[in-house]
Amino acid sequence: MWEQGLREMRGVDRLLAPLDRRRSPRSQTQARGQKAEMSPRPLRTRAWRGFRAVLCPVDFSEPSRLAFRYAMAIARRSNASLTVLYVNDPLLIAAATVALHDRHIAKRSKRELRAFTEATTRSHESPTPTIVVATGNPADEILARARRSHADLLVVGTHGATGADRLLFGSTTLSLLQRTSIPILAVPSPGETTSTAVPTSWPGQRMIAALELDSQAGHDLEIVTDLAAWFKTSLLLVHVVIAVAAPAWLTGDLTAHDRIRIAQAQQQLDQLAARARKRVKAETRVTCGQPADEIAAMAAAEQTGLVVTALKDRRGWFGARRGSVSYHVLSHAVTPVLAYPPQWRHR
Hints:
The chain has 347 residues and is of the alpha/beta class. It is built from 10 helices and 10 strands. It has helices spanning 2-38, 62-78, 90-100, 105-120, 138-148, 164-179, 217-231, 251-276, 291-302, 324-332; strands at residues 53-57, 81-88, 130-135, 153-157, 184-187, 206-210, 234-242, 282-289, 307-310, 337-340. Strands 3-2-1-4-5-10-9-6-7-8 form a 10-stranded mixed sheet, with helices on both faces. Strand 1, helix 2 and strand 2 form a beta-alpha-beta unit. Helix 5 (138-148) packs parallel to helix 6.
C-alpha cells in the first residue's frame, strides 16, 4: 500500500509539472512587481507648470476680498485664467422681487460684482477676471462652475464671525472640502492687526506640508514637492502622532509607547525628506497630539505663509468626515491652507 501511494504521488507530480512551470514565470513577475511597489518611486524631474484655471467665489465681504487677492497672486504667478463667482440665494431673489418690485436683481448683482473686482484690482494687475453670477445652492453652484470652466484650483475666504453667520458660511466651506475633486486654497479672515494685502514674497521662505505616513505618502510627497518648487520655497514636512487619552495609571507605559511611535515616524519622515531634497530644501518635524491643533500651532510658531495637506477620507487623521482637520486648522489659524483630494493628479 505504501508503494502504491508513492507511485500515485509521483504520477500526480508528473501531471502537475507543466502547470508549475507555467505558474513559475508569473510568480516571478508578481514578486518583481511587489518589490517594485515597495521600493520608493523617484520624484519626477520635469517642473510642474502650476495652476491653469482659478475659480474664486466671493460674497462681497472683506474675507472674500482677501481671497480674491490671493487668487490674483496665484493666477499671475502661472499666467492662469481667473473666474470670480457670486451665487445669489434664490429665496432672497424671490423676496426682493416681491418687496422691491425689481425683476433685475440678478443683473444688478453682476454690476456689483464687477465693481467689487475693479475696486480690489489695481489697474496694472493681471489677468482680467471673468465675472459670473449664478443662483442656487452655493456649494452646488461653485462645484458646477468649477467643472464647466475646467478650474484646477478653488480659492475661498473664510469668515471669522461667530454664531449663525459662521455656521452658514462654514457649511459651504466644509461641503466644498468634502466634495471637491480639485485643490482648495482656504484663506482665513484677516484679523484686526493683519494686513489685507498679499505679500509679494508669499508664501515666504518655507511652507508646511502635513503628511500621513500611509500607502499614499509617496504620492503626497510628489505633490508637496512640486508645490514647493513652483512657489520657490522650502518644505517643512510635518507628521502628527495622534495622542491617545488614557487613565493616569497607564500614563507611564503610554508615554514610552508614544516615544517609540514618534521615533518610527521620524525615521519614515526623514526618508521622505531625503527624496524631496533632490529638488527642494526640506526639514522634518514629528509631534504628538491632535493633528489640527498641532498643525495650527506650528504654523503660528513658524510664521509660515501656507499649510498644505491632503483631504483624507474615512481613515487616519480625517476620521469619518473628509476635510474636518483642514477646516479645524482654518478655524484656529491665520494661515492659508491648501487642501487637495487624495487622488488629485496635477497637470
